[in-house]
Amino acid sequence: MNKIEMVKGSIGMVVSLGVGTIITNIVKTTSDSNANAFTKVCVMAGGFVLSTMAGKMAANHAEAQIDGIINQFKEVVVAQQA
């Protein structure tokens, strides 16, 4: 694994965890604290799935942005060498 892939993986993980935490906090804040046990389990499961989905999408987006920056940098370097 090269350095760029390590950086992308690290940034992706941080972004994913951050988004997951934000969604978890939103679910906790907006959920009914007086709900029955079944509803609480359903909300918890739904929040987990939503967190993982959004986290993965955010990580993929961040990694794609890094790829775009790298490609632009490569184009500039090639243009300067020509």
Q: How confident overall, as mean pLDDT? A: 93
Low-confidence spans: pLDDT under 50, at least 5 residues?
A: none
- N-C termini distance: 30 Å
Strand portion:
under 5%
Helix coverage percent: over 70%
Which structural class do the helices and strands define? mainly alpha
Shape: rod-shaped
Strand segment tally: 0
Radius of gyration: 19 Å
Q: In the residues, how many domains can be counted?
A: 1
Largest sheet: none
> How many H/I helices?
2
* Series of secondary-structure elements, N-terminal to C-terminal: HH
What this model shows, in words?
It is a single chain. This protein is an all-alpha fold and 82 residues long. It has one domain. Helix content is 89%, strand content 0%. The chain contains 2 helices and no strands. Helix 1 packs antiparallel against helix 2. The protein is rod-shaped, with a radius of gyration of 19 Å. It starts with a helix and ends with a helix.
Short key terms for the protein model shown above:
82 residues; 2 helices; 89% helix; rod-shaped
Describe the structure concisely.
The chain has one domain. Helices cover 89% and strands 0% of the residues. The protein contains two helices and no strands.
Task: Summarize the SSE layout with pairings.
Layout: H1 3-30, H2 37-81
